[in-house]
Amino acid sequence: MHFASDNTAGVAPQIMAALEAANAGNVPSYGADALTEAVTVRLREIFEAPQAAVYLVATGTVANALSCAMLCAPWETVFCHRNAHIEEDECGAPEFFIGGGKLTLVDGPHAKMDPDALRRAIAHTGRGGIHNLQRGMVSITNATEAGTVYSVAEVTALAAVARDFGLPVHMDGARFANALVATGASPAEMTWKAGVDVLSFGGTKNGCMGVEAVILFDPTRAREFELRRKRAGHLFSKHRFLAAQMLAYLAGGLWLDLADHANAMAARLSEGIAALPGASLVHPTEANAVFAAVPRAAHRRAQAAGAAYYLWPFDQSLDGPGEEPLAARLVCSWATTEEEIDEFLSLLR
Ligand SMILES: Cc1ncc(COP(=O)(O)O)c(C=O)c1O
Ligand SMILES: C[C@H](O)[C@H](N)C(=O)O
């Protein structure tokens, strides 16, 4: 029973097979290979964005950090939710790659920025002229760090606020596929048509070994991104192996099928937990993660049986005082099975 993170899942067999198939002979390095070109063609088709520039990197953190570095000057700030991954879990990488920029935290329920709160935060920034940090960009996570999802209308509303101030919009889409299948939106509707300028398109959490695509819907600054990626040490020499993963991931809608399965498993788990005496959901389950408060005795049974997951926030402990229910984050992946879910629920009951 593995619910610690979708990062703990293995590689989907179709992706592993694609890596094996790509491992033949010598091919041009550093992205000059045919597979890499095919990825750009395919992502342009999927996103209905024939001019988009596409760059592959190996981690979601660097996809986010380089995107922020390109959209935000060192004297500017990134507006994001206070629980955004770029704030809480990237060890300052965005600020580092920006060259000293800061993040301005915006509130909103269930890790989703509230448009009015965003507008207030942007309006407040930079009023003191030369003495103040300047307005830089907005970053939205979809699916969010709380397992919730922004609808197209919600993304559009946030992007409209950004546009009112002339700010570009980035989307941390480490779990973009999960958000897409949850909403039924098209890739284009959820991104550039809603006002998103740059997307970190995730593959790693959803079955790939390690690949993310940064998609610049306006290719004007593509060369700058190329230079930033190289300078950060993230231009893979054997780039074909990033491309092989991404191409297989996109083939025949595999990316959507894997995300749909993970979301379905989370829905099954969420419904089971919500029905437990003394248990309750902390956030709505809209993608592949369940955030729920569970009685401590249930936690003890599950952990004694070897279930792998984190209490949430991470720094809680079952050894602390009191007997009130404790919250946990339970993440499902492409590899999660119904049997795993049902075994876990039987332990909690
Ligand atoms: C929402 C979100 N964005 C970005 C990342 C960063 O990805 P990586 O751990 O590959 O750097 C993660 C990690 O799981 C994540 O959950
Ligand atoms: C939080 C941690 O950094 C990782 N992004 C995860 O979701 O497991």
UniProtKB/TrEMBL annotation:
Domain (Aromatic amino acid beta-eliminating lyase/threonine aldolase) spans 3-293
Pfam families named in the record: Beta_elim_lyase
Q: What is its EC number?
A: 4.1.2.48
Q: Which UniProt keywords apply?
A: Lyase, Pyridoxal phosphate
Its top-level enzyme class, in one word, is lyase
Highest rank taxon of the organism:
Bacteria
List the Gene Ontology MF annotations in alphabetical order.
Answer: L-allo-threonine aldolase activity
Output the Gene3D superfamilies linked to this UniProt entry: Aspartate Aminotransferase, domain 1, Type I PLP-dependent aspartate aminotransferase-like (Major domain)
Name the GO terms of the biological process aspect: L-threonine catabolic process
Note whether Lyase occurs among the keywords.
Answer: yes
Co-factor(s): pyridoxal 5'-phosphate
Q: Per its UniProt record, what InterPro entries does this chain match? A: ArAA_b-elim_lyase/Thr_aldolase (IPR001597), Low_specificity_L-TA_bact (IPR026273), PyrdxlP-dep_Trfase (IPR015424), PyrdxlP-dep_Trfase_major (IPR015421), PyrdxlP-dep_Trfase_small (IPR015422)
**Catalytic activity as recorded in UniProt:** L-allo-threonine = acetaldehyde + glycine; L-threonine = acetaldehyde + glycine
- Quaternary assembly: Homotetramer.
Q: What does this protein do?
A: Catalyzes the cleavage of L-allo-threonine and L-threonine to glycine and acetaldehyde.
Tell me which family the UniProt entry assigns to this protein. Belongs to the threonine aldolase family.
Name this polypeptide is given: L-threonine aldolase
